[in-house]
# Entry
Amino acid sequence: MELEPIFIMVIVFGFTYAVIHLLIRRKERMALIEKGKDAPLFDQKTQTNILALKFGLLFIGVAIGLLLGSLLVELTTLNDEATYFSMVFLFGGIGLVVSHFLEKKERQE
# Structure
């Protein structure tokens, strides 16, 4: 099976997420500036650490998804494309959810 379509889909969804995230972040900053407040949330060092955690967990999830997708294709009679896509999105999503809860816990401290 060719992995090019999978990589293209991951890149497209990643780029779309990044653009939407940056637009929302810009609106939040503008609202804070209008109110005359500053948020430590937008501290560059904190943002870099959180972003690294998020991407790290996402890529770990994608790798686990590809591995399990490959195992399912070899051990069952499931469709190749459906198996790979479902496992990549399932474990990539799990990685992002874990990242969200870790980020939320860090912000509360």
User: Anything to note?
Assistant: The chain has a mean pLDDT of 80.
